[in-house]
Amino acid sequence: MVRIVLEPFAKVNLGLDIVGRRDDGYHEVKMIMQSVDLKDCMTLTVTDEDIVAIMTDSKDIPADDSNIVIKAIKLLKQEYGIKKGINVELKKNIPIAGGMAGGSADAAAALRGMNELFNLKLDDKKLCELGVKLGADVPYCIMGGTMLSEGIGEVLTPLKSAPDCYAAIVKPAFSVSTKKVYEAYDSLSGDRIIHPDIDGLIDAINEGDLYKMCTRMGNSLESVTEKDHPYITEIKRILEEKGAVKAMMSGSGPTVFAIFDDKDKANSAISVFDNNERIEMTTVVKFLN
Question: Domain 166-286, what fold?
Fold first, then answer.
């Protein structure tokens, strides 16, 4: 029995700017993406029966063809005439619908796994071309690290590694719809639209200056999601009062991440949320290069 074990990693957005909207409805973005060492565990097992099936430890993940992992596997099966089946076992640690690209990371891992299992010899460029058919964040999740992400998310430029730090992750016990967040953003006008200084953020990363980096961080979608979910604002306030250099929402939310220059401070900060029924999960992570 041939199988492979994969580790899909989560991401946070150090910066997220919406710079336009295309005729097809996709938003043009300018983002700084950063992978972190929070990961799922995925096992792909080849079977003789031409069926793709998935088992997970989460009741919130569909097991039908709407599942992005199944879509990824079937995409490669169709593109390359693969007649074998695949059984997927997925253990989730990345928050679902939390703004940390958990689904996209799983899809990216599935593409890499299929590439290896069937010796397809696809390079990263080709994997990214396939990945964008599944979702805008999938190409980044294939590459990982510290990246400038443009276009709809598929135009990637590697950056110097972000400064060493610890990030406290706090996921509230609710999820948000990325689609609805972007729709709400589209209804904003004038000074209600926030455009973070992405170029200044890149300069700070290149200088290796953690504190300057934090002053440049920003997320155009943050105020939109916070309007409907003010508890996100409260979480950020608490984390900064506990010593975070910067606390910010990742992606369309609702997960908050906070940058700390000391691991003990980060662990102390998340302990505030222990036994809090309004919080789904907390953890402390490192950036991955």
Answer: Alpha-Beta Plaits (3.30.70)
| Catalytic member of 11, 30, 236, 242 | 11
Asked whether the predicted pLDDT for residue 192 surpasses 80, the reply is no
- Tell me whether residue 11 is one of the annotated catalytic residues: yes
- Specify the residue for token string 């997320």: 219
CATH for 3-158, options being 3.60.130.10, 3.40.50.720, 3.30.230.10, 3.10.450.50:
3.30.230.10
pTM exceeding the 0.85 threshold for the entire prediction: yes
Q: Is 209 a catalytic residue?
A: no
Which has the higher per-residue pLDDT, 189 or 67? 67
Is 230's pLDDT higher than 80? yes
Active-site residue identified among 30, 137, 171, 242: 137
